[in-house]
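Please, why this fold?
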Amino acid sequence: MAENKTKPTKASVTAFLASVENERRRADARIVCDLMKEVTGEKPLMWGDAMVGFGTYGYKYASGREGEWFVTGFAPRKANLVLYIMSGFKGHNALMKKLGKHKTGSSCLYINKLEDVDMKVLRELVRRSVEHVSNAST
């Protein structure tokens, strides 16, 4: 069975964030990093060369595939800021409706710039996602 290619590394999160070319994206990434650090109580770690993750949990699919992934995280991409949060918790849809301008795809939340979203709602989405993942993996 294939292993996850994306794993935690010893690379510096600070250096990675400083290397983000777009000034707005760099500033937004630092804000999201601080938000996730505060919500999770975890130290940010680089996962692969372009994702910042907080905490870890183990998963196992019915197929037998298993691995480890971060509880929540983000990636400052060229096109947008991608936040990795889980859906499926009570109140998710209502929060998403109040969030502001965004797009979604599986467990990804795409935001062009933080000023497009309600930061209180974003914080609550991250908090509830972390709680949901933590409860599901225990």
